UniProtKB/TrEMBL annotation:
Pfam families: Amino_oxidase. Belongs to the carotenoid/retinoid oxidoreductase family. GO terms for molecular function: oxidoreductase activity. InterPro entries: Amino_oxidase, Carotenoid/retinoid_OxRdtase, FAD/NAD-bd_sf. This is Phytoene dehydrogenase. Pathway: Carotenoid biosynthesis.
Length: 522
């Protein structure tokens, strides 16, 4: 029995590993010349740049995946016990980061964010002592949301509205359905702490002004399992997953863009590539963007549920401008900066409204500055650093002309890092640069309108309302990755892969699960 996986992103590779362990003949079809999707690697002038995700949390999910063996797809339980990374260490080296992020404010103050409770309390006392009691209440309520929303419901496939209605009263009682920033403001008066405890939804494409407070659980996901870095970069993680897949007998074909998913009588029959080659299959799993999958890869006559109108009404997440740069080191970069840095501008809510609601490009901007060579110097030539700066921008529904804007925006972003004192003298120390815009997401990654994270995780695009991992339109078609349940972010993408593999195993009669779990996946 053959399964085709469209796309070799982290979700595609993860589900391919589990399907290969189930005994299926697995072939991953990748449009580009290498694996990773958004997690591709850029190598230039001796520098290695991760092009996509760099925040690794919940390493037990990786351990669970790397422990997979033939006949043992490890589809249950949800959360493996223990924190031993013995299997992971065969494929890559993970190191914990402390702090997770250094969060910078325009007045020169900062907050070092980690999972040490006493350290967090000390940072709050130093920055905003008036909000210490508020944090204790926030901690209590955020932990309750984490326990219900992540630990208990994280692997639930919400295949119908009834699945959501069963848990809605609990979420309402905890306040998890109200806007995240409004929820945070109940506990913190200081604007800096309001930003610190709401910004993390941006890491999964969510606007703190509109995503549900359910996503406050990210705070405890990180507190529980920390933030890690793969030595060699996220590309090392991708290569580890490729190796694991190949050990299980799975294969990847590169330069193999899919033109259409083939069907007969509303059942999957395979795919046809851009060059006309037809590849038969019993199961097709798409790791591609939601609207690209249904709007481009599936024939209109096959789409009764995912109509053009439904696709058009989908509210897409923001996009990203990412500037990669290598520069000569002065030796003092680690004095003010850390591996992960969040650089806030003077504005917060107004900036979010400009980018995510008005779809305009403001004069000011906030940065996520990634400086991995503070942890792994091998990513740059000796005496140099490799870095990238990521700036949220509107997706291409804005009509912005990035061919014209791109070079100017790159210079503006780098000059800001220099003149604001984060990397003084940067412009004279630059060795190489590269940047990507929403155009890259749209045309290279097939992400509709260049969105960065799939459907925006607002309340009406969460749980049952988020695209399902089993297609309602075509039997044998399944979906995986950030566009689908449970959502974006590395932990969610790996959870998505496990959920999708469970659905396939259940539908094919290949895996027996506890009755209670089958009820939420059928």
């Amino acid at each position: 029995m053959r399964a085709l996986v469209i796309g070799s992103g982290l979700g595609g590779l993860s589900v391919a590993i589990r399907l290969a362990a189930l005994g299926l003949e697995v072939l991953v079809l990748e449009k580009l010349d290498g694996p990773g999707g958004r997690a591709r690697v850029l190598r230039k002038n001796g520098f290695t740049f991760d092009m996509g995700p760099t925040v690794i949390t919940v390493p037990i999910f990786l351990e669970d995946l790397f422990a997979t063996q033939p006949g043992d797809p490890r589809l249950y339980p949800d959360f493996p016990e223990g924190e031993n990374l013995t299997h992971t260490s065969r494929y890559l080296k993970l190191v914990p980061l402390d702090p997770f992020y250094r969060i910078h404010f325009p007045d020169g103050s900062y907050f070092d964010y980690n999972n040490n409770r006493e350290h967090l309390l000390a940072e709050i006392r130093r920055l905003a002592p008036e909000d210490l009691e508020g944090y204790l209440r926030f901690e209590r309520d955020a932990k309750a949301i984490f326990q219900r929303g992540f630990l208990e419901l994280g692997f639930t496939h919400f295949g119908s509205l009834l699945d959501l209605l069963k848990v809605a009263p609990d979420l309402l009682r905890m306040g998890a359905v109200f806007p995240l920033l409004s929820f945070v403001k109940r506990y913190f008066k200081n604007p800096k702490l309001q930003r610190i405890f709401s910004f993390e939804s941006l890491l999964i494409g969510g606007n703190p002004l509109s995503v549900p407070a359910l996503y406050v659980m990210i705070h405890f996901v990180e507190r529980n399992w920390g933030v890690h870095f793969a030595m060699g970069g996220t590309g090392a993680l991708v290569q580890g997953l490729v190796r694991k897949l190949e050990e299980l007998g799975g294969r990847i074909r590169y330069n193999a863009p899919v033109r259409r998913i083939l069907t007969h009588n509303r059942r999957v029959k395979g795919v046809v590539l851009e060059d006309g080659e037809k590849i038969p299959a019993d199961v097709v799993v798409s790791n591609a963007d939601y609207i690209h999958t249904y709007g481009e890869l599936l024939s209109p006559e096959d789409r009764r549920w995912h109509s053009d109108l439904r696709l058009k009404r989908t509210r897409l997440s923001m996009s990203l401008f990412v500037g990669y740069f290598g520069f000569r080191a002065q030796g003092d970069e680690g004095r003010n900066l850390r591996h992960h840095n969040v650089l806030f501008s003077e504005r917060y809510e107004g900036l979010l409204q400009d980018i995510l609601q008005r779809k305009t490009l403001p004069e000011d901007f906030a940065h996520y500055l990634h400086l991995p060579t503070l942890t792994d110097p091998s990513l740059a030539p000796e005496g140099h650093h490799a870095a990238y700066t990521l700036v949220p921008v509107p997706h291409n529904g804005s009509g912005l002309d990035w061919q014209t804007l791109g070079p100017r925006y790159m210079e503006k972003a780098l000059r800001y890092l220099d003149e604001a004192g984060y990397l003084p003298g940067l412009m004279e120390r630059l060795v190489c640069t590269h940047f990507i815009t929403p155009d890259y997401f749209q045309w290279t990654l097939n992400s509709h309108l260049g969105n960065g994270f799939g459907p925006e995780p607002i309340l009406w695009q969460t749980a049952s309302f988020r695209p399902h991992n089993r297609s309602e339109d075509v039997k044998g078609l399944y979906l995986v990755g950030q566009s689908y349940q449970p959502g974006a972010g590395l932990p969610s993408v790996m959870m998505s892969a496990k959920i999708t593999a469970r659905l396939i195993a259940h539908d094919l009669g290949l895996e027996k699960a506890p009755k209670a779990l089958l009820e939420v996946t059928s």
